[in-house]
Every structure is written in structure tokens, then in C-alpha cells.
Amino acid sequence: MFLGRLNAWKYTIAGCVGIQKYGGSTINPMRHSPYTAGPYIPLIPPPSHFGFPPKFHSYRKVQDRAIMAGLQSTSRFVAQCAPVGFGKSVNAIMQAVLGGWKCVVLTATKGLQDQYVREFGEMGLVDQRGRDNYAFPGDPEHATCDEGPCMGGMRCGLKKLGQCPYANSVNQFNKSKLAVTNYAWWLAMSQSEKGVVLPDLLVCDE
User: Fold this and answer.
1) H or E segment at 25?
2) Dihedral sign, Cα of residue 23, residue 28, residue 34, residue 36
3) Tell me, what's the pLDDT at 25?
4) How is 112-151 classified by DSSP, letter by letter?
5) What SS3 class is residue 70?
6) pLDDT tens digit sequence for 20-56
7) Spatial separation of the C-alpha atoms in residues 19 and 123, rounded to whole Å
8) How many helices (H) and strands (E) does the chain have?
9) Of the chain's two ends, which shows fewer C-beta atoms within 10 Å, N or C?
10) Does the structure show a pLDDT above 70 at 113?
């Protein structure tokens, strides 16, 4: 998982092995934790205490250390690497919740987007996708919003009427404190004139 900063931004990326970067040095949390030999004592209350679903009632080994390392880092970019099953998604969302930050998670696949929605949707996390994932109200059985008249330079009144599902989704995405989308959509929107509301924490996941 990778985290970094651009101005007020703080970013995070997920994946790799059990080593994390913190304060310019490389740390293996399993090797350096004073609690690995005896009963594990978490640094912070469990995620469920902060509004996470009940299944997140405890931390996996040193997961809380990774959360605090990312949260307390003053670096513009922070890379946090952990093995499969470590709980990198909880790591990222907990940092956003504890920091009180607006957070956007980027993924490479729709499957991972679906996973974030399943796990954190009840916390208010919203899912944003490209225009071709939204049915065009004028022809819902055949056309999607990437085939709407506005894509051909024509005027479309659905957005002003609040009837464009894609525009409504983007509005919700910009207003939400927690959101997930894909790299392609984010990069395209970041370079467009309309753009998106920049988050405090940008999580660059797999």
C-alpha cells in the first residue's frame, strides 16, 4: 500500500511484503514490535469502536502499528507493504477515519471496488465508475451514459433536472468522506476541466 502527499493530500498504496517505510527508515513491524513474544496489546481501540462493521472487532498482528505509522508519518508519500491477509483495506480506511480525512481509494479492478463496497458501504463509502456503467435514462435497455447526447457535443437537460445517473453519482462521490474508484476514471477526471474534489488521503491500492 502506498501513501503520499501532494500539498494537502496524503496518499496510500497496498501490496507487497511485511516491510513498511516510516520516517525515512525501513521497518519490519513483526521484528521490531515489543509485543510479538507475549500477549498482543493493540495501540488503539478496535475498528468496530469507530463505526466499522462488527466483524472488524479486533486487529490482526501488528495491523494497528501499520495504521499508526501511516497516520503519524509527516512524509509526503508513505509506502506500506504487507502480505496477503494482512488487512490493508482496513489499514487505509482506519487512517482516514482517525485522521478525519476525506479519502478516495483507487483500485485496478472492479472486483476490488466491489470488495470495498461490501466491507465499508455501511460506513457511507460510495463507489464511482465510468459512464458505461450507468444506464442512459432516455434508453435504459440499450444505451449507457457514455452514449448520451452530451458526449456528442449536444445539450442534455437530464443533468440539470437531476436525472442523469452518472452526474448524480459524481456529485455523491465528491461529497462523500469515503469513496472508491478505479485508476482510469480518476486519472481522466483529474485532467479534465471539471475535475474532482481532491481528497485529504488518496489510497493507491492494487
Assistant:
1) strand 25-27
2) positive
3) 38
4) HHHHHHHHHGGGT-EE---GGGSB-TTSTTT-BGGGSGGG
5) helix
6) 333 343 444 444 444 445 566 778 899 999 999 999 9
7) 29
8) 6, 9
9) C
10) yes
Single out the residue of 88, 81, 130 nearest to residue 105, CA to CA: 88
Query: Can you read off the three cell numbers belonging to residue 94?
Result: 482506519
Spell out the alpha helix ranges (H) of 24-109.
29-32, 63-72, 88-99
Contact call for residues 136 and 143 (beta carbons, < 8 A): yes
Distance of alpha carbon 74 from alpha carbon 67, whole angstroms: 14
44: which DSSP letter?
A: S
Does residue 25 or residue 190 have the better pLDDT?
190
Whether pTM exceeds 0.85: no
Q: Closest Cα to residue 176, out of 102, 90, 98? A: 102
Range of lowest pLDDT (121-125, 145-149, 179-183): 145-149
- Which of 85-89, 175-179, 197-201 has the highest average model confidence (pLDDT)? 175-179
